[in-house]
């Protein structure tokens, strides 16, 4: 997604909220590999809003509404990886999209943002592994 929108992380402060092995840690490494300065936050982080307000790029992967308008600064770029159903059955992300959307430069919607990218990458990886296995059997 970053490449598609021409977002360069070089020298930017990336804050990742969530430390899972599936999303948080890999996203942190990806940002580090792109020369970003990375701060990881999690359920025990004190003063979360103070840290998220410093982000040039905020990546949230928690699975509950956590990021509100007063937690981001103007022109921030937000990638919302979190997804869950709220008590009314509505699919939601970690970020209060309607409120935060007016403040930030870019924000990925939930649903329809990171999810389709994940499925595409999964399908591509599956196909590539299939082709690799097929070649090894010949």
Task: Give structural notes.
The chain has 138 residues and is of the alpha/beta class. The chain has a single domain (13-111), classed as Rossmann fold, CATH 3.40.50.720. The chain is 31% helix and 17% strand. It contains four helices and seven strands; from the N terminus they run βαβαββββαβα. It has helices at residues 24-33, 48-52, 97-100, 114-137; strands at residues 13-17, 37-41, 57-60, 77-80, 84-85, 91-92, 106-107. The strands form two sheets. Strands 2-1-3-4-7 form a five-stranded parallel beta sheet. A two-stranded antiparallel sheet has the order 5-6. Helix 1 (24-33) links the parallel strand 1 (13-17) and strand 2. The longest helix has 24 residues, at 114-137. The chain is globular. The termini are far apart.
For this entry, give a set of tags:
single chain, 138 residues, alpha/beta, Rossmann fold, 5-stranded parallel β-sheet, two-stranded antiparallel sheet, 31% helix, globular
Short structural description:
The protein is α/β, with parallel strands linked by helices. It has helices at residues 24-33, 48-52, 97-100, 114-137; strands at 13-17, 37-41, 57-60, 77-80, 84-85, 91-92, 106-107.
> What class would the helix/strand composition place it in?
alpha/beta
Q: Considering the protein shown, what is the CATH homologous superfamily?
A: NAD(P)-binding Rossmann-like Domain
Strand content: 15-25%
Largest sheet: 5 strands, parallel
Order of H and E elements: EHEHEEEEHEH
CATH-scheme architecture:
3-Layer(aba) Sandwich
Q: What is the helix fraction of residues, given as a range? A: 25-40%
Order of neighbouring strands in the sheet with most strands: 2-1-3-4-7
Q: Number of DSSP helices?
A: 4
CATH topology name, in short, is Rossmann fold
Count of extended strands: 7
Distance between the amino and carboxyl termini: 36 Å
How many whole angstroms does the radius of gyration measure?
A: 16 Å
Determine the mean pLDDT. 92
The CATH C-level class name = Alpha Beta
Overall shape: globular
């Amino acid at each position: 997604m970053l490449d598609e929108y021409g977002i360069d992380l070089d020298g930017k402060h990336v804050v990742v909220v969530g430390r899972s092995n599936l999303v948080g840690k890999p996203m942190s490494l990806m940002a580090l590999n792109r020369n970003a300065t990375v701060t990881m936050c999690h359920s025990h982080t004190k003063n979360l809003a103070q840290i998220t307000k410093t982000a040039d790029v905020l990546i949230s992967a928690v699975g509950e509404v956590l990021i509100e308008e007063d937690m981001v600064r103007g022109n921030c770029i937000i990638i919302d990886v979190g997804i869950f159903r709220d008590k009314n059955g509505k699919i939601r992300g970690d970020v209060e999209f309607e409120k935060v959307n007016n403040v930030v430069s870019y924000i990925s919607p939930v649903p329809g943002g990171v999810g389709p990218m994940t499925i595409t990458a999964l399908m591509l990886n599956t196909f590539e592994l299939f082709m690799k296995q097929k070649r090894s059997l010949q």
